[in-house]
Specification:
By secondary structure, this protein is mainly β. It has 3 domains: 107 residues, Lipocalin; 120 residues, Beta Barrel (Lipocalin); 94 residues, no CATH class. The protein is built from 5 helices and 24 strands. The strands form 3 sheets. An 8-stranded antiparallel barrel has the order 1-2-3-4-5-6-7-8. Strands 9-10-11-12-13-15-16-17 form an 8-stranded antiparallel β-barrel. Strands 18, 19, 20, 21, 22, 23 and 24 form a 7-stranded mixed β-sheet that branches. A hairpin with a 7-residue loop joins strand 1 and strand 2. It starts with a helix and ends with a strand. The N terminus is likely disordered.
Length: 376
């Protein structure tokens, strides 16, 4: 009996010493050592993703990037209502324990527990110790170096300047003509390609910090002249396998993609308005078919497009009555007015800031919602 009791006591002692696992299968830290906390012991800088709980929706698709300089980027998308993610940027601070962070007050002061390969959103009053609720955990998906490369890719629109095969000969049809440039745009883990016949899009990943892997691509379904259709087919073939990715810094940075068969695509970067001005406001403007006489104080032109604001609900249905037509003086990047054609435009409106000279806002075409020809 004494031997049996001794064995039971030993088993209980060993069980007590074994680390428990939380819902992620990662051992929690019961008594963290102040000298070895998450801040100074973990490679915490990087990108974390997951779906966080929501009181009145299926969940919030969340992507939080933590940079080594203690800045962050937070992307949130409400799964049942948002068509595009909301992105905010700011600074975070470490809590005294060194095991949790707080986003700046401008962005709600959210708190996250920092662990090995994960973050956990802390509820108000919750202790910053593991385990945390599994539905509040964001998983690590990319390192700081990968995040930095991704941030560079997503901060620019990349225009194809040359395309050569393994022996240095030009790839037929690439790049396209001057009036129809081929442009790669990266945003929120997705690649968008324009300039051929159809707009092509799909997910992408950076593997090993230096290889671009493009997932299965989808596209619009327009029919075009054979040369434009060939551009789409050629690009899809070139991107079918992961390509070596090289970035050259500068005011107009360069991007090179080298495929496994030795083909090289070279691009020139132009900073996106989001990178330059911050998150935009989405607005809808209806553009009248005909211009009207005006005195444009910005350009000196004597003819302006006429616009009126339109409103739509979350389901895309018209809300309210359009206002009066007004002359519109600001340029709209990506939009060229055709006389006799009326359009409803979805625009990104960026605020230039009080210190900037010129117009207060920058307008960028996001989508042509409606288009119709109007006879005089």
């Amino acid at each position: 009996m004494r031997t049996l009791l001794s064995l039971l006591a030993l088993a209980l002692a060993l069980t007590a010493c074994m680390p428990r696992k939380d819902g992620d299968g990662i051992p929690p830290v019961a008594n963290p050592d102040p000298a070895h906390n998450s801040r100074n012991s973990l490679d915490w800088a990087g990108v974390y993703e997951g779906v966080l709980p929501c009181a009145n929706c299926p969940g919030i698709q969340t992507r939080l990037t933590l940079n080594r300089d203690e800045t962050f980027e937070l992307s949130t998308l409400y799964l049942d209502r948002d068509k595009a993610p909301r992105i905010v940027r700011g600074r975070f601070s470490w809590q005294p324990s060194g095991n949790a962070i707080t986003l700046d007050a401008q962005h709600g002061g959210q708190q996250f527990m920092v662990g090995e390969g994960r973050l956990a959103q802390l509820e108000a009053g919750a202790a910053p110790v593991w385990p945390q609720q599994p539905n509040r955990v964001l998983k690590f998906v990319a390192s700081a170096d990968q995040a930095g490369m991704q941030r560079t890719l997503e901060s620019y629109r990349w225009t194809l300047t040359s395309a050569t095969a393994a022996q240095g000969q030009r790839i037929e049809g690439l790049p396209a003509g001057v009036g129809r440039p081929i442009v790669f745009s990266f945003a929120e883990g997705r690649l968008n390609i324009e300039g051929g016949c159809n707009r092509t899009f799909g997910g992408y990943q950076i593997e090993g910090g230096s290889r671009l892997k493009v997932g299965r691509m989808a596209s619009t379904l327009m029919a075009c002249e054979p040369a434009a259709m060939k551009i789409d087919a050629t690009l899809s073939e070139l991107l079918a396998e992961p390509a070596k990715l090289e970035l050259a810094p500068g005011a107009e940075p360069g991007l090179r993609l080298v495929t496994p068969v030795g083909a090289t695509l070279s691009f020139k970067g132009q900073m996106t308005p989001e990178a330059r001005y911050g998150p935009p406001t989405r607005v809808f403007l209806e553009v009248a078919a005909q211009t009207a006489a005006c005195n444009n104080p910005l350009s000196g032109a004597n003819a302006c497009i006429q616009v009126r604001e339109r409103r739509f609900d979350a389901q895309g249905l018209v809300v309210g009555t359009p206002g009066a037509w007004q002359p519109f003086y600001d340029p709209i990047e990506g939009y060229t007015h055709q006389p006799g054609v009326s359009n409803v435009l979805r625009l990104k409106r960026f605020e230039r800031g009080a210190s900037a000279s010129g117009p207060q806002f920058v307008y960028v075409l996001d989508l042509v919602v409606e288009s119709k020809t109007v006879s005089r």
